[in-house]
Amino acid sequence: MLLKLTFSYDGSKFNGSATQPHKLSVQDALANALTHLGIYDKPLFASRTDKGVHAFNAVACVKSGGHFKDFSYLKNKINHFSHPFIHIKHIEKVNDDFQVRYDVKKRAYRYILSHENYNPFLASYVYFYPKINTSLAKKIVYLFEGEHDFKFFQKEGSNNKTSIRIIYKTKVYIYKNHTIFYFEANGFLRSQIRMMMASILKVLEGKLNQNELLEQINAKKAHCRFLAPASGLYLSRISYCNNA
């Protein structure tokens, strides 16, 4: 039986989502929780996130025996072993041919800037930053929409077959004393959103102009290769073609 798990996690407690030698990952921690219930296959994740990046609705699938009938009970038992930093929100059975990574239609992320006074207890969960020109920010993020070769918005050493991605939707909005950036695409390159955010902030600071940013978006020339802090980034939603 193949199970699809939807879950959230606190990325500040892990060295990224994917298994790494001698480092604790979200994948390892979830796998360990599952072993307590006799599920020994390693869960496969729909998306990978960097060290310090969080998730509201991550998705994984794992093979299990067919004896689990009460998924509410199973969810509670997994959470007993995965808490406090991983929380299973939903479990459902999917077809055996379900591909948790390759069946994804859209991925969405949010990046949170806090304009509050610095708080060390929240520093792992937002990026503390001065208030910004929201109207200008909306115009800047809109430049990323559409199909582009984002080769200058990925970490060096990435081995993707192609760096072309389609960004379907961007938003910038205010919530209390926070500015939230939203990005929805068919996929993202390694550290792409953190590089995009760094370049957006450079334009807002007047250290990069929009023509230079467009040159980078159009893969003509790299002007900004910085990464915005991982603390502000959240995997928000994963959508599937078959609504699985």
Concise account of the structure shown:
With 244 residues, this protein is α+β, with helices and mostly antiparallel strands.
Polypeptide structure, described:
With 244 residues, this protein is of the alpha+beta class. 21% of the residues lie in helices and 30% in strands. It has helices at 26-35, 71-82, 134-142, 192-204, 210-217; strands spanning 2-9, 44-45, 54-63, 86-94, 104-114, 127-128, 146-149, 164-175, 178-185, 233-240. Strands 1, 2, 3, 4, 5, 6, 7, 8, 9 and 10 form a ten-stranded mixed β-sheet that branches. A hairpin with a 2-residue loop joins strand 8 (164-175) and strand 9. Helix 1 crosses helix 2 (71-82) and helix 3 (134-142) crosses helix 4.
List the helices and strands and how they pair.
Layout: E1 2-9, H1 26-35, E2 44-45, E3 54-63, H2 71-82, E4 86-94, E5 104-114, E6 127-128, H3 134-142, E7 146-149, E8 164-175, E9 178-185, H4 192-204, H5 210-217, E10 233-240
Parallel strand pairs: 3-10, 5-6
Antiparallel strand pairs: 1-3, 1-4, 2-3, 5-9, 5-10, 7-8, 8-9
Helix pairs in contact: 1-2, 3-4
- Distinct helical segment count: 5
Write the element-wise H/E pattern from the N-terminal end onward. Answer: EHEEHEEEHEEEHHE
Strand runs, count: 10
What does the main sheet amount to? 10 strands, mixed
The residue fraction in helices comes out at 10-25%
Structural class: alpha+beta
